[in-house]
User: Which sequence fits this backbone?
């Protein structure tokens, strides 16, 4: 089934985003169903496979409710509050079996897409755990969130992950929108810098820092950047989501930097808290 998701003539999802949400949910469900033991630990996480899958099922339900115009308070946007909200929701929701969770992940992804196709009186903007977003950015947020945890599940189950160049491109509306909000005040204080970020074969953007303020300029890296960073798109997303050590990516040739202040490159990921 192919769905064109459109609320009115004022917006539509970027080409391929709806299909990426559906396909990613289905691939994650396949991963979850393949788990012989959902108590298996997720590398680099305090969660088990069952807990990560339960979180995804609950998060997809949350996103579907937001898309439908239902208010769902969930933390205050800080990493600590989101972690607390995650813990509280998992404490209440006890399901850890593979099949019910896999089904819920795909069903709630479909519910999200279905909600976008039904106009509401609230207009295209929603209040989310990371601030107000229009519906295309919210859809990009959902995809980004699923990819981060889908990557974790793939690592835990020793299966190929589903993060690829095309899907990273569809995550960029959310990533660029949220960067100023997730900037780390302690890291950005007293830093003045002009970054140019280029993803191989994909997005280019600028990040300007001055007096603790962070400004992101999509599609327009500064002409005289202090530091230009060229990254493999998959490495960019995994670093941004806290799944890949930047030094490892540099050692593997996935990150290159140049400009008058190239030493600013390793500092760039530390300026933000993974959403």
Assistant:
């Amino acid at each position: 089934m192919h769905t064109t998701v459109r609320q009115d003539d004022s917006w539509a999802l970027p080409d391929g985003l709806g299909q990426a949400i559906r396909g990613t949910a289905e691939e994650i469900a396949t991963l979850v169903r393949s788990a012989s033991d959902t108590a298996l630990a997720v590398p680099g996480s305090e969660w088990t496979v069952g807990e990560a899958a339960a979180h995804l099922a609950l998060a997809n339900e949350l996103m579907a409710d937001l898309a439908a115009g239902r208010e769902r308070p969930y933390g205050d946007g800080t990493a600590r509050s989101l972690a607390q909200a995650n813990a509280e929701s998992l404490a209440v929701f006890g399901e850890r079996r593979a099949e019910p969770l896999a089904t819920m992940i795909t069903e709630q992804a479909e519910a999200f897409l279905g909600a976008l196709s039904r106009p509401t009186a609230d207009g295209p903007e929603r209040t989310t755990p990371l601030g107000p977003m229009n519906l295309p950015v919210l859809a990009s947020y959902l995809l980004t969130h699923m990819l981060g945890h889908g990557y974790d599940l793939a690592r835990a189950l020793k299966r190929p992950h589903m993060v690829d160049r095309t899907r990273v491109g569809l995550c960029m509306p959310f990533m660029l929108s949220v960067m100023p909000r997730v900037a780390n005040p302690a890291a950005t204080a007293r830093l003045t810098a002009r970054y140019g970020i280029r993803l191989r074969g994909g997005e280019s953007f600028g990040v300007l820092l001055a007096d603790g303020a962070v400004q992101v300029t999509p599609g327009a890296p500064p002409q005289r950047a202090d530091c230009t960073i060229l990254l493999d798109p998959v490495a960019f997303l995994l670093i941004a989501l806290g799944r890949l050590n930047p030094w490892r990516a540099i050692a593997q040739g996935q990150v290159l930097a140049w400009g008058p202040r190239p030493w600013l490159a390793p500092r760039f990921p530390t300026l933000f808290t993974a959403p």
In short: The two ends are 31 Å apart (CA to CA). The chain is about 45% helix and 15% strand. The chain has a mean pLDDT of 92.
